[in-house]
């Protein structure tokens, strides 16, 4: 098909040319080129996983260099802005590894290809894994993410031993967790329970997952009725009371600000983070840090947005785009994503333990254990930030951070939060 010009939105891609060691033009390619926009623009020294993903893309492009349609992966910092601008004009890029959820406008205008028929015809249900259910929209699938954003928690066994607690005791339920963190607090010095604030949002997520009413709230956008629900009140107040006992000195809007306290310095007993945290653990602490799912046998695993294809490609371009999708969820590529990107792959047929043992890397073995735990949790729910939106998520984090201050009236702050959220969802 005749390619469109993506205008100045590709300026971000051009600035990455030096980093990538290649030239990216601001205008679309030739008629026989399938353009694939992705967000792995980072230098290898900044984020090694980005180089792994680019190599995967480049390998596919290389093997199809002589085909009827060329495959061109394009790394950009602003992929979601590109999608938004195209959709506003009634178009959609050839293919994108989306970062944000697809807009209803893109779907309602028929701009995005339904991937479900291809998945079903080629028996790729296990290959796409959680995407098959979480990304189902009224019997259609418009996006497939090749890796799952998977969250549980990590804990320091040495700190637990010093505090006289066991993982079994601490993670039985949230009340037991609070008791365990109180014992950690009693150790004094620089040692503390956990990095609260952004991390505490996952307490809310997990508490909601523990009840039928709460799980229903996590299946769609937050509504005024959801804001007023008992399930939401219980979830917020549980997290806020734990945070206040944990102390305001250990709260942050970005858990990355306090990550070294857990991964490198051994000050924090617990870290709420994804399976990928395995790669950030200091070698000196590797034998002391273990993974765990949330109390109540809960994990937060989100397929999220990923590969989406324009519904207006030529037959040959569509065929190549779908072939690339199958390539990305294939066992061979998924194994690279697991070992090289240190992420939870979407393909459920992989033996992660065997792959980790084959690698001989202790960190990859910890990653395998963490992935297995989150994937096999009794209750698996989506990240509330994905279904309710980042604005709602930010408002909740702000309320949690303020609630962590000693003396704050948590009930009053919750009433204020309800007003803020009602205005946001109106």
Automatic annotation (TrEMBL):
Entries under PANTHER family matching the protein: ARABINOSE-BINDING PROTEIN-RELATED (PTHR43649)
Pfam families referenced in this protein's UniProt entry, alphabetically: SBP_bac_1
Superkingdom, taxonomy of origin: Bacteria
Gene3D superfamilies: Periplasmic binding protein-like II (3.40.190.10)
Signal peptide positions on this chain: 1-28
Keywords: Signal
SUPFAM superfamilies: Periplasmic binding protein-like II
Protein's recorded name: Raffinose/stachyose/melibiose transport system substrate-binding protein
The keyword Signal belongs to this UniProt entry's keyword annotation: yes
